[in-house]
Specification:
Layout lengths: L36 E2 L7 E2 L1 H4 L3 H11 L3 H12 L4 E4 L1 H6 L6 H5 L2 H18 L6 H10 L4 E4 L11 E4 L2 E4 L6 H8 L6 H12 L2 H11 L6 E4 L1 H9 L6 H9 L1 H20 L3 H10 L4 E7 L2 H4 L9 E6 L2 E7 L19
Parallel strand pairs: 3-4, 4-6, 7-8, 8-10
Antiparallel strand pairs: 1-2, 5-6, 9-10
Helix pairs in contact: 2-6, 3-6, 7-9, 9-13, 10-13
């Protein structure tokens, strides 16, 4: 008797596959479609060997190693992300991609595939802080609109493993640990998740202290610190000397760089003004909008008057706002001299 009945429902009490739970014949299993199972009303699901073209040993591997664990991983994802996700595995494509001498892998593919998804869930757990980071959760959920995690072999890979986002689906291509890189590569002009988290943790949690320091140096003049994060990021990656490696580095310290620019300006105020009332009052008059902003400009020499321009940084008053500026190429450099020429432009 064949272990798998072709075209006829298997006999449950005699079928060894049915002694395991969850079973590949369960229509509620998250991997139901992945395994190529077809269900007709009031009929027992039939595993179509002709469609899957997998060996019996490969199917046993899927049953024993994949089926019990995949639902647990999906449940963990659901608990962290607040929505249901599905796994998508093309078992035949995975097996067909093996080398001729990898007989063991072709016969027992499930543990390797499970390892990919397990590592992915581990890194996702860190990324979203077990679901306690709402920014990370919201960003990931919005990017993965299809709510599907797919194992996709990429012939152009130059590493063992990695990841990418295609058409709203998260694809495990190489190493699942490069989560932020996949989000970054989706659209380089979009502020990446890691930069958003850096803004929150490195800048927004500390902006109050540097605001207070600047106000103190201006003899109590009430100012607001302004940074258009999206515009700053767009200016950085739009630079013709754009380098992906450096921008990835910038994204990890994005909040610290913003803090350093404003803190650097507070130090320059201390050095240049010494809380002199005439100087602080003149600044207040020029800064009628009570805003000190940081911005990226394309060409420092063309956009910033000479009296407010250093080699890679500059400052100016514009429409009642005081602006600290630099170029995308020089973002993060010489933050200590931000606004150094403030007295020269008053």
């Amino acid at each position: 008797m064949s272990l798998i009945s072709i075209g006829e429902p298997p006999v449950p009490q005699l079928h060894p596959f049915l002694s395991h739970s969850p079973s590949p014949y369960c229509s509620h299993c998250p991997t139901f479609k992945t395994l190529g199972i077809h269900v007709q009303p009031d009929e027992t699901p039939v595993l179509k060997r002709a469609e899957l073209k997998l060996s019996l040993l490969a199917k046993v591997s899927i049953r024993d190693s994949w089926e019990p664990e995949a639902p647990r991983l999906l449940q963990k994802i659901q608990e962290m992300m607040g929505v249901d996700y599905d796994f998508d595995v093309d078992w035949k494509a995975f097996i067909d991609s093996t080398e001729p001498d990898q007989k063991g892998l072709r016969q027992n593919p499930a543990p390797i595939v499970l390892g990919y998804f397990t590592y992915f869930v581990d890194h996702l757990t860190k990324l979203v802080n077990e679901g306690d980071d709402p920014i990370a959760v919201e960003t990931f959920n919005s990017l993965i609109s299809k709510k599907k995690i797919r194992l996709a072999l990429d012939p152009e890979c130059d590493s063992y493993s990695g990841c990418s986002i295609k058409d709203g689906i998260w694809e495990i291509n190489y190493r699942p640990g490069v989560v932020d890189q996949a989000i970054f590569k989706t659209s380089k002009s979009t502020l990446p998740l890691i930069a958003r988290r850096a803004i929150r943790d490195q800048w927004e949690k500390r902006s109050g202290e540097v605001t207070k320091r600047i106000r103190d140096q201006l003899n109590g003049f009430d100012v607001k610190l302004v940074a258009d994060y999206e515009a700053i990021w767009a200016g950085i990656v739009a630079d013709p000397n754009f380098d992906e490696g450096r921008v990835r580095q910038i994204s990890r310290g994005f909040g610290d760089y913003l803090y350093d620019y404003f803190y650097g300006f507070s130090c320059r105020l201390e050095d240049r003004f010494h809380k002199d009332e005439l100087m602080t009052e003149t600044f207040a008059e020029a800064c009628s909008q009570r805003e000190i902003a940081f911005e990226i400009v394309r060409d420092l020499e063309k956009e910033i008057p000479e009296e407010g321009r250093l080699s890679i940084n500059g400052c100016l008053f514009e429409h009642g706002r005081f602006k600290l500026v630099t170029t995308g190429q020089h973002f993060g450099y010489n933050t200590h001299d931000a606004g150094d020429l403030v007295a020269s432009i008053l």
